[in-house]
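Lecture notes, unit on protein representations.

Consider one protein chain, 108 amino acids long.
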Amino acid sequence: MPAPEVFRRWCRLSFAALFLVISPAGVSLAQSASYVKVTGLPVGRVVWVRSKPVSSAKRVGFLPATARHIRNYGCERSVASGWCQVRYRGTRGWVSKRYLKPDSAQRV
């Protein structure tokens, strides 16, 4: 195989591998979901909704552990931070995406 063809193949494989490393499944699931629900919390606990995508930002509301039909406006692509902008019962803000998963139920 000629050297330029080997280089092109190497580039394609490297790009594909890099894409898989940078886009974990949790990001793409929450990113593509129009509505999400809270997951991973015991009943009675809450997830704080923040004014900015950092844990030190002002609290503007909360999501109960049983919250569903939460409007998702998108998640940050940064693997380190992991925040999604949401709206629930009139409150809009940022929530850590580790507490969210796609909600397949129809909004009523």
